[in-house]
Write a structure and sequence with these properties.
By secondary structure, the chain is an alpha/beta fold. The protein has 7 helices and 8 strands; from the N terminus they run ββββββαααβαβααα.
């Protein structure tokens, strides 16, 4: 994770993008992308946790799927070049180590006076995968639960359902870039922060072009 500024006590917007190996919430994750902005729209942290998973490989004439569900691999990844997948394979860590890091980050975001807002493209998938990983590997309660007893809001923010006109969405990213960024969860998380800022007027965002 990279951090570029000190926090004040204002509200934080945390976008999360999970890259799963399968459709079930029990499936291992290949990566989690994160972007954190403050209430002015300034992005403070971006980063990506890559998990140590068994990637599909050809053995003889057979494709061995490793930790990936065949359906998920064939729908999302089949035909991608090694270069396109390389960003998900840099410095991988175990699921325990990765979720310990994510849990410490979540706890840090929740120390502000105002609980953060979490953004996810699909709550029933991205948030569920992350919550199951936190519970399984570090015994942490869901990300919506703050240790001070408060609860955080989780907003589903889908590019396709964004109410901004296409011309305004394009200030953040094009539909093609949003679709392609499935291979770069940190970039996808940053786009979500940028679109949230653009739609709800919380300020300018570095994700906007020309800023």
């Amino acid at each position: 994770m990279s951090s570029s500024a000190q926090w004040d006590d204002g509200q934080r917007v945390v976008s999360l993008c999970a890259v799963p190996c399968g459709r079930r919430v029990s499936a291992p994750l290949a990566a989690v992308g994160v972007c954190v902005a403050d209430s002015s729209g300034t992005i403070h942290e971006t980063g990506q946790i890559n998990f140590d998973v068994r990637w599909p490989a050809v053995s003889g004439d057979t494709l061995v799927y490793g930790d990936f569900e065949p359906y998920t691999w064939d729908c999302l990844w089949k035909g991608r070049s090694p270069a396109e997948l390389s960003g998900l394979q840099v410095d991988p860590v175990s699921h325990r180590a990765g979720f310990e890091l994510l849990a410490s980050l979540v706890d840090g975001w929740q120390t502000a006076a105002v609980p953060p807002i979490f953004l996810a493209e699909r709550i029933e998938f991205d948030v569920a995968w992350i919550n199951v990983g936190l519970e399984t590997h570090v015994g942490r309660l869901p990300i919506s639960f703050c240790r001070n007893g408060d609860w955080c809001d989780i907003i589903q923010f889908d590019f396709g359902l964004c109410s901004l006109p296409a011309s305004e969405r394009a200030l953040v990213c094009t539909a093609e870039e949003w679709s392609a960024s499935v291979r770069d969860p940190a970039q996808r998380a940053m786009y979500m922060c940028g679109m949230y800022a653009a739609e709800f007027g919380i300020g300018s965002s570095p994700a906007r072009r020309g800023s």
